[in-house]
Amino acid sequence: MLSRISSIAKLVLHEAVHKKILMSIFLFGLIAIGFSTYFTYLTPNEEIKIIKDIGLGAITFFGMLVAIFGAATLIPSEIERRTAPLLLASPIRRSEVVLGKFLGAVMVIATNLIFMSALFFILLISKEQIFDTELLKAILIIFMKNCLLASVAIFFSTFLSSNLNVAASFSIYIIGHFLSFLSHIGEHAKSKVLEYIFVVLEALFPNFENFDIQNSIVLGTQVTWIYISKVLLYGLLYSAVMLMGAILIFNRREV
Length: 255
Known about the structure:
The protein is an all-alpha fold.
């Protein structure tokens, strides 16, 4: 089972290298990180903050794009190209296909993150001459955030087309950053029905606000490992739920 899942994952990673949209996102991400070093007219402290802010922002934004475009098309593309029946005709379970596709998406996310983070750290060390270990917390959280987003895209890919999946994943990502705002509206809503709706939305949608520690890291505010652990556990549990849902739906779908 594990060998079949890993084989599917490796194939996903191999195919990702040849996808123009993913390579374009990757290159634009590197350019955005490199652009952060052009603020030489600022004081040294301000310049370091700008590099950290733009660098982490670029890693977050372009990582999000890689997660969505890298995962959203994995299962729909097999169905649209009529290769899904051939894949499922071999001794591979549907659950293995879902897990293999997700693991492949995680490998693509990790590869992108490693290269972008490497450039980010090289530029930062060349300016600051020291290695800020707090940044590793931000990178770890970004990785978990993108993996969670990929699990959401995999879930939608079991019953939506590629284009609809991309749109749905973007929508979930945006809504997930406004859950506290929705919660605030729900608390002050005069209608009990409206309040209940906002409570349900807050419970169902992934809370991506939990992953936003970039400003704290840039400003030098320490983020405890206890908080990091809680966020990572939240991301793992939510991703597991999404994958279980994807397996249940894909098992029932005719391809």
